[in-house]
């Protein structure tokens, strides 16, 4: 059953996940910079990998615009590390996203279609932009294969939003 979705303008309560390379990733809560959070299906999803390759190529532009990047999935450490090793991603990657975390983020949850796809439920894609105070500026969640925002367009819009101190939209 789908979970309630977060509301633009609300504070995302912190979610702590283990991070590849050690330490933790904290999604939500107050921080110095803006945050771009990308939830991906996991190692089994070639479309997610294509999207994350584009993000990886753009990561310096996002950092230059004042954004921290966190990419997370329900994958195990081994699967997440295998993707990083294979694809050379340079952003922070969190793993072991639980169904409780998925519910708090409001992303859709899917069962694997076959045992070879993956061995656990996984999150469908989601993209979140948070202000430094932890409030949600943008939410894009999908239960389909290609409904993620274009990263170039999103960055352009976020630069405009930051420079002009625009409020969250879709709150009416």
Can you lay out the helices and strands and say which pair or pack?
Elements: E1 15-18, E2 24-27, E3 34-39, H1 46-64, E4 67-72, H2 77-87, E5 92-94, H3 99-105, E6 109-110, E7 122-123, E8 126-130, E9 136-141, H4 151-163
Parallel strand pairs: 3-4, 4-5
Antiparallel strand pairs: 1-2, 3-8, 6-7, 8-9
Low-confidence stretches: none
What's the helix-strand series?
EEEHEHEHEEEEH
How many helices in DSSP terms?
4
- Biggest sheet features: 5 strands, mixed
Task: Decide which structural class fits the backbone.
Answer: alpha/beta
Gap between N and C termini: 25 Å
Average pLDDT: 93
Radius of gyration: 15 Å
Q: In percent, how much strand structure appears in the residues?
A: 15-25%
Oligomer: single chain
The proportion of residues forming helix, as a percent range, comes to: 25-40%
Biggest sheet, spatial arrangement of strands: 5-4-3-8-9
What features would you describe in this structure?
This protein is an alpha/beta fold. It is built from four helices and nine strands, in the order E-E-E-H-E-H-E-H-E-E-E-E-H.
Short description:
The chain is of the alpha/beta class and 172 residues long. It has helices spanning 46-64, 77-87, 99-105, 151-163; strands at residues 15-18, 24-27, 34-39, 67-72, 92-94, 109-110, 122-123, 126-130, 136-141.
Comma- or semicolon-separated keywords:
29% helix; 172 residues; two-stranded antiparallel sheet; alpha/beta
């Amino acid at each position: 059953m789908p979970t309630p979705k977060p509301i633009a303008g609300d504070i995302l309560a912190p979610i702590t996940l283990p991070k590849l390379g050690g330490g933790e990733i904290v999604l939500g809560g107050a921080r110095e910079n803006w945050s771009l959070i990308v939830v991906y299906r996991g190692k089994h999803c070639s479309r997610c990998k294509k999207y994350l390759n584009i993000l990886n190529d753009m990561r310096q532009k996002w950092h230059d615009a004042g954004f921290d990047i966190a990419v997370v999935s329900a994958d195990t450490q081994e699967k997440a590390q295998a993707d990083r090793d294979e694809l050379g991603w340079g952003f922070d990657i969190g793993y072991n996203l639980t169904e409780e975390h998925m519910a708090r983020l409001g992303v859709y949850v899917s069962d694997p279609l076959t045992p070879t796809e993956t061995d656990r439920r996984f999150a469908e894609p989601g993209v979140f932009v948070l202000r430094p105070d932890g409030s949600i500026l943008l939410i894009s969640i999908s239960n389909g294969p290609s409904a993620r925002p274009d990263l170039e367009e999103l960055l352009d819009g976020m630069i405009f939003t930051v420079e002009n101190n625009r409020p969250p939209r879709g709150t009416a």
